[in-house]
Amino acid sequence: MIPSVLPTYNRAPLTFVKGEGAWLTEADGRRFLDLGAGIAVNALGHAHPALVNALTEQAHALWHVSNLYHIPQQKMLADKLVEHTFADTVFFTNSGTESCELAVKMARKFFYDKSQTERVEIITFDGSFHGRSSAGIAAAGSEKMTKGFGPLLPGFVHIAFGDLDGVTNAITEKTAAIMIEPIQGEGGVRPVPDRELKALRQICDDNGLLLILDEVQCGVGRTGKLFAHEWAGVTPDIMMIAKGIGGGFPLGAVLATEDAASGMTAGTHGSTYGGNPLGCAVGCAVIDQVATPAFLDGVNRKAGLLRQKLEGLIADHPDVFEEVRGSGLMLGLKCKPNNLDVVNAGYDNEVITVPAADNVIRLLPPLTLTEDDIAQAMIRLEKAAKQIESSLATA
Question: Is the CB of residue 330 less than 8 Å from the CB of residue 40?
């Protein structure tokens, strides 16, 4: 008999009932160090006082009215995002998937309104992840994402990750945009080198294309800048965000320049829940915390310490780990044994990591984790590595 919850997840045998900072409490009382943060969502950790206060105060005032009316909290958050980014305008969604849908529509509408109706194709990259909607899986293109869900939405051209010549060769009179994650998350924590991101920006400029950046996982302070593309000194035309912006409350957004968004007039897109008072009140509190030099300096300092410790872990356990990759507090450990075995060994030792492609485990801790938390992380990852080594020795 099918369970009441549709069984589309292979869930770990864990049930968490309380969280505080970087720690989660299981129903049986065990405390787990959370290096997953709900897959890069809980940017300020669990039960952060500023977010609790923002949500509670707003809940006592007004929950939802729909976008048929002006929403002051939405305007406040949009103003903050415009102030701190390249963007001139913002549309609020509930998730990264919804943000991808709008980014695709916005790019195609841009050229439609310029009477270039044939320009509908978007260049994407192998290993990418842009959500699980029809547009998102078509953009990623992998068999894992698309098998059984055809016919796929047309208009996406897939290029090997890092193949700049392939990008140039793929551009035709039908090309509208290039869409890329500055750091692939699901794809195995694979950063796009700064020089390549600069080159993609130049390719777009030279060919009259839009550059769409997917910062759903790598944005909102995770790399030590407010958004990852800032390290390369480039700006996109359109950017999709989610995850960290809500700090655990479902919230996403599409940020765009005035030019790129020019086709999105009244009636061209909408969302019943997107940008509701609750979500935007929390989003404002997140940005107020994260978008400060002191906070981002702290992320960089802790990221440097964590990475240094992880390099030592790899050196001590070469049969378990190959390398550390990523940026800031978006890090990946490439494993030699099956990465799921390493994740499960972490569970046994009360530390949470997140699997990814390329046999990688992701470390996406709250940006607020402390040096004591990092010390505990290393103790628990060390125990997990020794457990794996023991199992390899007896296999």
Answer: yes
| Secondary structure element (H or E) that encloses residue 17, with its range | strand 16-20
How far apart (Å, rounded) are the C-alpha atoms in residues 216 and 254? 10
Structural element, H or E, at residue 53: helix 49-61
Q: How far apart are CA 2 and CA 331, in angstroms?
A: 37
Q: Are 353 and 33 in contact (CB under 8 A)?
A: no
Angle CA 259–233–164, to nearest 5: 85
Q: How far apart are CA 43 and CA 224, in angstroms?
A: 12
Report DSSP letters for 41-93, one per residue: T-TT-BT-HHHHHHHHHHHHH-----TTS--HHHHHHHHHHHHHSS-SEEEEE
DSSP H or E stretch at residue 334 = strand 330-335
Non-local CB neighbours of 83 within 8 Å, separated by 6+ positions: none
Cα(108)–Cα(238) distance, integer angstroms: 12
**What domains appear along the chain, each with residue ranges and CATH number?**
71-290 (3.40.640.10), 293-367 (3.90.1150.10)
Distance (Å, whole) CA 33 – CA 346: 10
User: What's the CA angle centered on 104, arms 100 and 108, to 5 degrees?
Assistant: 170
Mean pLDDT, residues 74-93 taken together: 98
Q: Each residue of 148-201: pLDDT tens digit?
A: 999 999 999 999 999 999 999 999 999 999 999 999 999 999 999 999 999 999
